[in-house]
Design brief:
The chain has 16 helices and 7 strands. By secondary structure, it is an alpha+beta fold. The strands form 2 sheets. A 4-stranded antiparallel sheet has the order 1-2-3-4. A 3-stranded mixed sheet has the order 5-7-6. A hairpin with a 7-residue loop joins strand 2 and strand 3. Helix 5 packs antiparallel against helix 6, helix 6 packs across helix 8 and helix 12 crosses helix 15. The protein starts with 25 loop residues before the first helix and ends with a helix. The relative contact order is 0.05.
Length: 434
């Protein structure tokens, strides 16, 4: 039982409180017990709400919960915490002579101090910097990007703690730092900003889809250009470490597609002969499908479909349904043109330098002719014989387009193709405003 006046415990059946001397009745002691109980009860409610608040922030920071769930938890914690804290303060004020009052005042101060200190210290139990999962890789990339804007000291820490062993074997620390500093100075770069779009994991390999903004000022108010690529990381020595070069496609398998397109894609890669070429590197991200009809392609035979700035992890190419009846050589020739567009898009995203619509078309025609030059003797004889005999409409379209390009002025095929597309009304319409 507790005294209603001072809140201290009194002996059962006592008539007077030995602490304050006031008279005590049984009814008063019951009421006093109820009025002093908010000390402990509401302190615990307030303490648990602050702990839940902190845990929610840490879980969100490490990508264990979504933003919306984090906001919901924080909102509930804030409501419970405020109500409990107000009741606790009222109890402290109304029981000014209670011995428990000083204890809870001290606990409140200590709890507040510990809470704000904990917000500035990364909890080791939730530290996913070295975890072999998406949260660990994201955390690593974010920390690395923070260091990237901390001058030479930050770059040296990146070299020491964030680069793979193969990367370090390819360059020294001084060369790594001086190379970045010299390049930034020559380009007039004063700062960088990074956006992480997605994380892809494949066992001990990981890929970060990110955009780097190269800025003319430290606040990045003036962006000179931007680059979007995938950066490869490997899990070594219980850490995520960055490898030496950007990756054009993070996929390890091809998209499901009609078999004739898979054969055409393989033929193109085989004929160019370099398994490490840019075309081969993007092949797993190429998704070739038949269009529903020619109207979907604006009456073209093929179309590389994209939205400006989209991820390069999926490069959609649509082919006219008429090509269901052509052979692999003709199909491969068409695919080569659209594959060149996809390749140009990926390189443009990586370099931040996008070709004009006319230049993009000219380079696609140039790539097509180079593919024809890679065909063997029998394949070329087959195409020539069918052209002389009046082959399929699709094959004749190829021949007539190449013939029209060859008649344009220019010192090489690219220049001839560029003059061709710039003078053609359909390409003028297609490239209008681009």
């Amino acid at each position: 039982m507790y005294c209603k006046n001072c809140g201290n415990k009194v002996i059962e059946n006592a008539k007077f409180c030995k602490n304050c001397g006031k008279g005590v009745t049984e009814q008063e002691t019951k009421i006093s017990s109820e009025t002093t109980s908010p000390f402990k009860k509401n302190y615990l409610f307030w303490l648990f709400s602050m702990l839940a608040f902190y845990v929610a922030l840490v879980l969100r920071e490490n990508s264990y919960i979504s933003d919306n769930l984090c906001i919901l938890i924080i909102g509930i914690c804030a409501l419970v915490g405020i109500i409990s804290f107000v009741i606790l303060l009222r109890a402290i004020i109304s029981h000014s002579s209670s011995k428990n009052r000083s204890k809870y005042i001290a606990l409140i101060i200590a709890t507040i101090v510990l809470f704000f200190v904990s917000l500035r210290i990364e909890a080791p139990i939730f530290n996913n910097t070295y975890s072999q999962n998406e949260a660990g890789l994201r955390k690593t990339a974010e920390k690395q990007y923070e260091l990237n804007n901390q001058g030479e000291a930050g770059l040296r820490e990146i070299y020491k703690n964030y680069l793979s062993s193969s990367f370090k074997n390819s360059t020294t620390e001084d060369k790594y730092v001086s190379g970045i500093v010299t390049n930034d100075q020559s380009e007039g770069i004063q700062g960088n900003k990074f956006d992480i779009h997605a994380i892809y994991l494949n066992g001990a390999e990981g890929y970060v889809d990110r955009t780097i903004y190269f800025c003319a000022d430290t606040s990045c108010a003036n962006v000179k250009f931007k680059s979007r690529t995938f950066r490869e990381y490997v899990y070594e020595n219980q850490k995520w470490l960055m490898t030496e070069k950007p990756v054009l496609c993070p996929r390890t398998t091809k998209y499901p597609m009609p078999e004739e397109f898979s054969r055409s894609l393989s033929l193109i890669i085989q004929r160019f002969g370099d398994p490490k070429s840019d075309t081969s590197e993007i092949s797993n991200c190429v998704n070739i499908q038949y269009a529903n009809n020619d109207a979907q392609l604006n009456n073209a035979e093929g179309l590389f479909s994209f939205s400006p700035g989209q991820s390069t992890s999926k490069l959609d190419i649509y082919v006219s349904p008429r090509y269901r009846y052509t052979d692999d050589l003709v199909t491969a020739y068409l695919v080569t043109h659209e594959l060149a567009h996809a390749h140009n898009y990926v390189i443009g995203q990586a370099s931040g330098k996008v070709e004009s619509c006319f230049a993009d078309e000219a380079s696609a025609f140039d790539f097509q002719v180079r593919f024809l030059g890679k065909l063997n003797v029998e394949e070329n004889k087959s195409l020539d014989a069918r052209i002389r005999q009046g082959g399929s409409q699709e094959l004749m379209n190829i021949y007539n387009t190449l013939l029209a390009i060859s008649r344009n002025r220019g010192s090489n095929l690219y220049e001839k193709a560029l003059n061709y597309v710039m003078s053609d009304p359909s390409y003028q319409k297609q490239c209008s405003g681009r």
